[in-house]
Amino acid sequence: MRKLIPRTFFWRLLLAFMLVILISAAALILTLETNLPRLFDMHFGMMDMTGMGGMPMMGPQGGGRGGGSALSDLYAAFRAAVEGALVPATGVALAAAVILSAWMGRRFSQPVQRLTDSSRRIAAGHYNERLPLEEMADAPEEILEMAFSFNRMAEQIARTETLRRALIADVAHELRTPLTTIRGSMEGLLDGVLTPTPETFTLVHQEAARLERLVNDLQQLSRLESGRQSLTVAALGVGELVRGTVESIRAAYSEKGVALDVDIPTGLPPLPADGDRATQALLNLLTNALAFTPAGGRVQVSASRVDAAIQLEVQDTGIGIPPEHLPHVFERFYRAEKSRARGQGGSGIGLAITRQIMEAHGGEARAESGGEGQGSRFTLVFPLSE
Known about the structure:
The chain has helices spanning 9-45, 64-67, 69-123, 141-191, 198-226, 238-256, 275-291, 338-343, 350-360; strands at 233-236, 259-263, 271-274, 298-306, 309-316, 364-369, 376-383.
């Protein structure tokens, strides 16, 4: 039975219209056949027919239709007139159904067909495919909404594909740099070009440690993005979190000559957070601020309660972030200035990990900057429990 049903939108719409007309016609015929004698009696059966003896003629329900040839002839003519009007009316209705279904089918099926063709092209790898919304202006509102959603989906797919390719290239670059250093050093040692000094072994060890950190960061980011990184949430004091994290990196700040201040007001409620993950998120921000704040600059860590959340802010006087780069600073391997960032040793995924940690806590990470040379402010928003 399924094979007998047309599969295209046009033919299904045409079949639906024709079925409606046929069912309506069948219902009309059945109604007429049932009520025609009663209607005849109502209008003709009790008429005083002059020229027939002045006697009232009984219709079908009164027995007159079977008893008088004149009344029978009148009933037959009445029935033929009704049926004669019904048959062409049904034909006109069917023709109108075909024309209307053809018009509506074309109006609906053309944008749907465009959507189908575009989706096939995207599936084939043509990620720049878009539906021409201006050419579909006369389509129904639902079709236009579907086309708009399709274009948004296509843009997201294209963006994801671009990020995927960039991720592969960035990972390859990040792995190539330390591997090249390690290989060059080992070849120099094997060929006798380099002497086996502690400095040489320290360099190789540092590059190997850099590789290990990169692999660990990638593994952790993958777990966070897939939801496989579980959190151990407990009440965590804001002052304890901030001061403990600051002390772990204060030596690096002193070595570079960047001031590090802390401003934590009293009376803040504890955070419902995973202590290790929250510390890592804040430490990533402090490391990022140190990397992009020149010697003599200042970084301040502060905390405040805003509505039903605790906000931790890291404000620096560093190089700042251009406005066009702000929406992307939490993406993997994204750098506003790639050469300078690599020279400063960043892997480009610390802020991506921070964002994933905050999202796992039900919060968010934000970045603000007035532009180049005007510093930056990064904010961690931890929602409080009810």
